[in-house]
């Protein structure tokens, strides 16, 4: 029985799609049989498509290419049948020409699940760029990095003896992450003094919700709509609601910047804390009427009256746009920042045999006002752009968007 869950997530994956061939259930057939017999067998197992569409398909061509590669290619050690199969399936799925419909190998599928669960293996430190140098923005609490004394502001000059000069942020992250229990040596520069630290990597759990306070304003940063979001959200909301009722805070800022999305039901659940019962949050439209659905507020919200500002930018996508768009449509909150990414489709995540996975677009979602923002994004009510020096990472001191959000909350009283 295949497990499935509706997800509305934006993946920035570097998975190649320029792959050869297309196939269906190819792994079930022996390559020793003739191409003609294999073609007949596969054709009779295809479960979709009309007879007219299928009768001219020549699956024998696929097997002919497979066999010719096996027999003639000079570097036979490069021909891994399992990789060939996965590449063929990826090519099949890529033919839909939809960046959000893709096949995942078992390793890629597990990485996707770990991302939604807020898990990865590494040293537990947020990295940034300052003057084109890799810098520690902050070590996570109780992380391996914090335990060995890594501090905010430490520059990383080398990783395992390799200089980081000229590295991108992604290169640094890739080199520093690694399997739990393995070591990585960082050469750090602190106050112009260079020293080495050896850190043993561990499994790191990244919170999807981070709550802090500034100028009597609750600042809630939502990193994603993942597996743990509900529990973390409930805990934060209960705290905010308590402080609001006790007149200890003047309002809140919900930060959805660089939030790539996640589970659609997460956006519905979070929006329900700000909107009255019965309000439409999002419409899901599919070519199949049975798959179309309207999502409404069905529970009592806990933050119905608190002054609210939502921060967005071009990295706010999918579920983050559902939430921010619904709040804007009902004028429940002003949006501050930059225009959002513009992803208006819904994906279904399927777990397949052997641990592989398939994400397939099954519907599009529509905001309460009837707008489909796919490819257009959501325009904020107040546009504020952070000016960051080239080669640097945003710091609190430079965060003009957050400054503007706080001032808007304070002025709403």
Describe the protein's topology.
Layout: E1 4-9, H1 35-43, H2 51-54, H3 59-72, H4 81-94, E2 102-104, H5 106-116, E3 119-122, E4 125-130, E5 133-139, H6 144-147, E6 155-159, E7 162-163, H7 169-176, E8 183-190, E9 193-200, E10 202-205, E11 209-214, E12 217-222, H8 229-245, E13 251-255, E14 261-262, H9 264-271, E15 280-285, E16 293-296, E17 308-312, H10 319-329, E18 334-337, E19 345-351, E20 357-366, E21 382-383, H11 400-411
Parallel strand pairs: 12-13, 13-17, 17-18, 18-21
Antiparallel strand pairs: 1-14, 1-19, 2-20, 3-10, 4-5, 6-7, 6-8, 8-9, 11-12, 15-16, 15-20, 19-20
Report on this model:
The chain has 413 residues and is an alpha+beta fold. The chain folds into 3 domains: 72 residues, no CATH class; 87 residues, PDZ domain (Pdz3 Domain, Roll); 203 residues, Alpha-Beta Complex (2-enoyl-CoA Hydratase, Chain A, domain 1), CATH 3.90.226.10. Helices cover 27% and strands 27% of the residues. Strands 1, 2, 14, 15, 16, 19 and 20 form a 7-stranded antiparallel β-sheet that branches. A 6-stranded mixed β-sheet has the order 11-12-13-17-18-21, sandwiched between helices. Strand 8 and strand 9 form a beta hairpin. The N and C termini lie far apart (54 Å). 32% of the residues are buried. The N terminus is likely disordered.
């Amino acid at each position: 029985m295949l497990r499935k869950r509706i997800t509305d997530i934006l993946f920035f994956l570097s998975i190649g799609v320029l792959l050869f061939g297309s196939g269906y259930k190819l792994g079930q057939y022996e390559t020793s049989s003739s191409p003609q017999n294999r073609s007949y067998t596969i054709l009779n197992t295809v479960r979709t498509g009309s007879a007219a569409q299928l009768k001219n398909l020549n699956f024998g061509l696929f097997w002919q290419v497979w066999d010719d590669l096996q027999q003639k290619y000079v570097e036979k050690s490069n021909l891994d049948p399992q990789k060939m199969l996965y590449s063929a399936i990826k090519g099949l799925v890529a033919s839909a020409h939809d960046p959000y419909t893709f096949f995942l190998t078992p390793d890629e599928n597990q990485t996707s699940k770990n991302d939604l669960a807020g898990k990865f293996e590494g040293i537990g430190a947020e990295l940034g760029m300052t003057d084109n140098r890799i810098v520690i923005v902050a070590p996570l609490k109780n992380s391996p990095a914090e335990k060995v004394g890594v501090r905010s502001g430490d520059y990383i000059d080398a990783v395992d003896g390799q200089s980081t000069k000229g590295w991108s942020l992604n290169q640094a992250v890739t080199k520093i992450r690694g399997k739990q229990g393995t070591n990585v040596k960082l050469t750090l520069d602190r106050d112009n003094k260079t020293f080495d630290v050896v850190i043993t990597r561990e499994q790191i759990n990244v919170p999807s919700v981070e709550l802090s306070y500034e100028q009597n304003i609750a600042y809630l940063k939502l990193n994603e709509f993942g597996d743990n979001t509900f529990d973390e959200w409930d805990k934060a909301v209960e705290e905010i609601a308590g402080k609001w009722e006790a007149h200890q805070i003047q309002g809140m800022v919900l930060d959805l910047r660089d939030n790539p999305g996640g589970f659609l039901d997460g956006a519905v659940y979070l929006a329900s804390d700000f909107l009255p019962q019965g309000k439409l949050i999002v419409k899901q439209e599919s070519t199949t009427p049975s798959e179309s659905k309207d999502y409404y507020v069905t529970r009592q919200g806990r933050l119905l009256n608190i002054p609210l500002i939502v921060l967005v930018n071009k990295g706010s996508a999918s579920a983050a746009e559902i939430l921010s768009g619904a709040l804007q449509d009902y004028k429940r909150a002003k949006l501050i920042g930059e225009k959002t990414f513009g992803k208006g489709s819904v994906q279904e995540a399927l777990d397949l045999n052997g641990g592989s996975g398939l994400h397939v677009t099954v519907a599009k979602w529509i905001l309460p006002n009837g707008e489909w923002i796919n490819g257009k994004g959501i325009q904020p009510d107040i546009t504020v752009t952070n000016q960051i020096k080239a080669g640097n990472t945003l710091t609190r001191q430079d965060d003009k968007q957050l400054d503007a959000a706080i001032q808007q909350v304070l002025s709403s009283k």
